[in-house]
Amino acid sequence: MFCWGDDGYSINISQRDPTTKLPLNKTVSSASFYSYRIMIKEGEDKYLVNYRALYSQYFVDEYAKIETERLNYIKNKQAKLRADSYIHLKDAIGR
């Protein structure tokens, strides 16, 4: 599907400022990366749409990657997520 040898998504892709094009201190999420990749852009060939069944499979595969990334984040950040919930609960009780 990607005959130009595109690298694809990597967790180390840094976001860029839209005006200056300089890298920011944030990384691109898989959801943002794939949203940009499937977006139909003016002046670009719509080659993904021409693959039909593979196009559908591509969406399914990318959705699975995005969900895996979200679940891994939740799994790896449990202590922080629980602490945030506890702080909001404490604020609600204190009112």
Automatic annotation (TrEMBL):
Pfam hit, one: Helitron_like_N
Top-level taxonomic group: Eukaryota
Residue stretches making up the Helitron helicase-like domain: 33-94
Protein name: Helitron helicase-like domain-containing protein
